[in-house]
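hey m, so remember when u said the tokens were messed up on ur end? i reran from scratch. heres the input so u can diff it against urs
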Amino acid sequence: EVRMERHCHNAMEVANFLEDHPAIGKVNYNGLASHPDHLVAMKQMRHPGAMMSIELKGGLQSGINMMNKLKLCTRTVSLGTCDTLLCHPASMTHYGVPKEQREQYGITDGLIRMSIGMENVQDILADLDQALS
């Protein structure tokens, strides 16, 4: 219970930060009031969870650049531990899938999948901010 509360608190802070970041086109997180399923999620869940995705404005190269700049957050193909983990499917898990096919499933060049961990939230935000600059 304590672990999930920390994950969810950190995820909400990260989502709010990223929603206003100039490098981000969209934040997909049902904890945000801007998410189309926000009201349903808040009726069904105590917390909106720690998983989210973002769409970078700069596409494929922006995703690669961001992932290469991470210092605290971990690049990985699997999500869901106590650490903050990020995956850029277009250059990692779905690299071999043709772009047209990926996009049919919502996997754009700028998509970053995120599992927000239990680290100090200010450390997470600082790492994301420097990676996006």
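this time it looks ok to me. The chain has a mean pLDDT of 94. if urs says something different then somethings off w ur setup not the seq
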